[in-house]
Amino acid sequence: MPKIASNLLTDPAAAARERWAQLAECRAVREQQVAFTCATGVPLTLLPASRSAQEAMPAAFCVTGCLGHPSGDLCQRKLLAAEKRAVTRAQPVQYCCPSGLVKILVPVFHGGQHMGSLLAGPFTLQSLDGERLGELMARLEAAGLGGRVRELEETWRHSPLLSSEKCRAAATLLGMFARYLEEFARKTAPAGRSGRPPLLEKIETFLAENGNGRVSLRDVAARVNLSPCHFCSVFKKQTGVTFTEYRNERRLGRAEELLRDPARRVSDIAFEAGFDSIPYFNRAFRRRFGCSPSEYRRRVGAESEDKRIEMQA
């Protein structure tokens, strides 16, 4: 579901961070965290949302700096910048730390507020050959971290090496874990504290009445008695995203559900979910889930078959 911001609670951001702290201590969540690392070999940190661009985030894996002082400060800035991009776009961000190692950050939302992130890494996508080592040392020199060849080699030696396929698979697992956390937080939230803006309540009712999501911005604006221009301004102010972004997220959620039915064609699913263009649907789906609709269907089918076999064993 869309990551919609709320202004109904006295301090919704603080409430979301508190909810994250509760989730992080939940046994089921911890078991999934351990399972991810065991399956991929990649460390996974449940990272609380930062409060400011200067806030220290000591819970983040290796943020203290694997290259010695002051590499931790640079690692911190890169992490906070990645978090900002991920929250702004409401989607995962893959970035490199000062050592050139890869990390994936997936934001998790509750009641429209960013409550925390899944931080996977560090890991590598290639070996540290002479050419790569030279490039990294040049970058570190420019950042004031020169002469740390031994530390850099040691860091790479102890970081898992993933193929591009395994990296994509890890990103898919992270996305699934993030959605599980969001749903778990929603289901276990105290009654009466959903934090959903009244405007959004009306819009979701209207969209539900129109089934397949083929509703124009003008139609929705008329339903809430606003001009299209004023509606766009109010919607963005109340929710933190544009109406187009929100509607696309709903359509992708619907498409994800329909893809679980193997009898449906992908093209039919795209139109039923509300997309007018198959290429656009494919691009939007890949950005959201990290794979094509067909690949997602195959993975879901394989998971279902594995569960069926386990139950029969």
Description:
- The protein is of the alpha+beta class.
- The chain has two domains: 12-187, Beta-Lactamase; 198-312, Arc Repressor Mutant, subunit A (Orthogonal Bundle).
- Helices cover 57% and strands 9% of the residues.
- The protein contains 13 helices and four strands.
- The chain has helices at residues 12-24, 27-40, 71-89, 130-142, 149-157, 164-187, 198-209, 217-223, 228-239, 243-258, 266-273, 278-289, 293-312, and strands at 44-48, 93-96, 102-110, 113-123.
- A hairpin with a 5-residue loop joins β2 (93-96) and β3 (102-110).
- It starts with 11 loop residues before the first helix and ends with a helix.
- The model is unreliable at 1-10 (pLDDT under 50).
State the gist of this model.
The protein has 13 helices and 4 strands. With 313 residues, it is an alpha+beta fold.
Topology order in helix (H) and strand (E) letters = HHEHEEEHHHHHHHHHH
Residue runs with pLDDT of under 50 for 5 or more positions: 1-10
User: Helix fraction?
Assistant: 55-70%
Tell me the quaternary state: single chain
- CATH architecture tag of the largest domain: 2-Layer Sandwich
Strand content: 5-15%
Q: How confident overall, as mean pLDDT? A: 80
Question: What is the overall number of helices?
Answer: 13
Q: According to CATH, what is the topology of the largest domain? A: Beta-Lactamase
Can you count the beta strands? 4
- Order of strands, widest sheet: 1-4-3-2
Total of domains: 2
Structural class of the secondary elements?
alpha+beta
Could you give a short account of the major beta sheet? 4 strands, antiparallel
